[in-house]
Amino acid sequence: MGLLACQRPPVTFNGIDITGAEYGADFHLQGHDGKTYSLKDFRNKYLLIFFGFTQCPDICPTALSRAVLIRKLLGKDASRLQVIFITIDPERDTPELLAQYMRAFDPGFLGLWGNLQQITEVAKAFRVFFNKVPSGSSYTMDHTAISYVYDGNGKIRLALKHEQTAEQCAEDLRNLMQSAA
After folding, report:
1. Of 107, 28, 126, which is closest to residue 68 (Cα–Cα)?
2. CATH numbers and ranges of domains, the chain
3. 111 vs 26, 48, 176, CA distance in Å?
4. Using only C-alpha atoms, what is the Rg of the chain?
5. Is pTM beyond 0.85 here?
6. Close Cβ partners of 153 (under 8 Å, ≥ 6 residues apart)
7. Which of 43, 45, 84, 96 is the most buried (most CB within 10 A)?
8. pLDDT tens for residues 11-32?
9. In this structure, how many other beta carbons lie within 10 angstroms of the beta carbon of residue 169?
């Protein structure tokens, strides 16, 4: 009976708890800063990873704007969160363009890039769908609109739905950070 009093209540989340998922195990992509990154480079950091493209008219800028608000809502814990944007449009999203795009939201955000084969492999490993769709003389991209959250041990933990508010996402991150403490 005494042991039960010491146990923490189960943590509940607004997002989808995917703790123990067998996907999203790693990536090896170039950052907009020219360095190559993988999950191990972010040990002791919580990660918020989103797949998108810089020419996206609404979903991607909304997700990144929400990430700015999440960091603000986390207050002193904001430094524990690294936001990563992985392009699904390497044809147009050069490292230079990704650097500009990240700075437009937060200079601490990291844009990751690779060739089409690398991006396709990483997206498949994360179960992210993307597809090039012709649009007039150009194209747009259809894609999954989920943000993935990793804990400080590099384990995938949450899938945040696009319709979740910044407040709900920040609450999930706070709960995740506190459950690890």
Report:
1. 107
2. 13-180 (3.40.30.10)
3. 16, 12, 24
4. 17
5. yes
6. 43, 180
7. 84
8. 789 999 999 999 998 999 999 9
9. 25
